[in-house]
Amino acid sequence: xxxxxxxxxxxxxxxxxxxxxxxDKGAVISGDVVISVAGVDLVYVGLRVLLSSxxxxxxxxxxxxxxx
Amino acid sequence: MGVHVYCIVPLHHxxxxxxxxxxxxxxxxxxxxxxxxxxxRHDRPPPTATAAIRTHDAVVRAAMDxxxxxxxxxxxxxxxxxxxxxxxxxxxxxxxxxxxxxFAGHAEYGVRMxxxxxxxxxxxxxxxxxxxxxxxxxxxxxxxxxxxxxxxAGERVAAVITQRGAGLVTDTRIDTSGGTVTxxxxxxxxxxxxxxxxxxxxxxxSGDVRLLSTGPWPPYSFVA
Lengths: 68, 224
Hints:
The complex is a heterodimer of chains A (68) and B (224).
Chain A: E1 5-6, H1 12-24, H2 44-63
Chain B: E1 2-10, E2 28-32, E3 35-42, H1 50-62, E4 71-72, E5 78-79, H2 82-91, H3 93-103, E6 106-115, H4 118-128, H5 133-164, E7 169-175, E8 181-188, H6 192-204, E9 209-217
Helix pairs in contact in B: 4-5
């Protein structure tokens, strides 16, 4: 049985993949990443990724703004 | 007004006419020492909402074509004005040009390894929480063992993809955070079809590991 699935843009997991990339990856060109929490309409998937992003910020703070 | 930044592109790669970004703001290019930034102007930093995140990604995708692949910028890059953004990018322009050259003609594809037994393990722990302490600890240990097994199984499949993708995949990144193994692959457009076929073949022999394929993406995972 072929278990591979290609996600469509409307899939919840596809949204999780999108949020993970846009919030937690990509180039950082300044020392700060501003993400506002109030009014966020991300559900639990987003919250998990948001926490990951905060952890990334802490990691960068420990090592200094290296540029990405 | 402040500036939100979407991506870095080669100089003279202009946004399509009428291209709008977050909150319908016009997307404009700012030149910075041999590269350009696609930006939009706002009164305040955009909220971290799904609509804004989707729009951010859509603008980055609009910068992609067969020959140009942008350097995607992480959501939340906010500058007081265009000069501040251009100045910081210009200070590291060599790095951005190198990435643009490396990404040209490529896109990112993702493979998430997802076993089906997670829900059972979580349910067992919740059920055991109402029983004895010993039963609860045993359920926790079982859940942790399953998580370790899941990660190792995912890593094994990722290794197979990396091995079989040699020649098709330019670069890979593996992410095991959050208990899920995700492999990101940088693939040339002309190899995308062969890559997809290879993933299907690996998936057919991946046992309990379910493969979820995504892409093409801008190369978010390959900037660092």
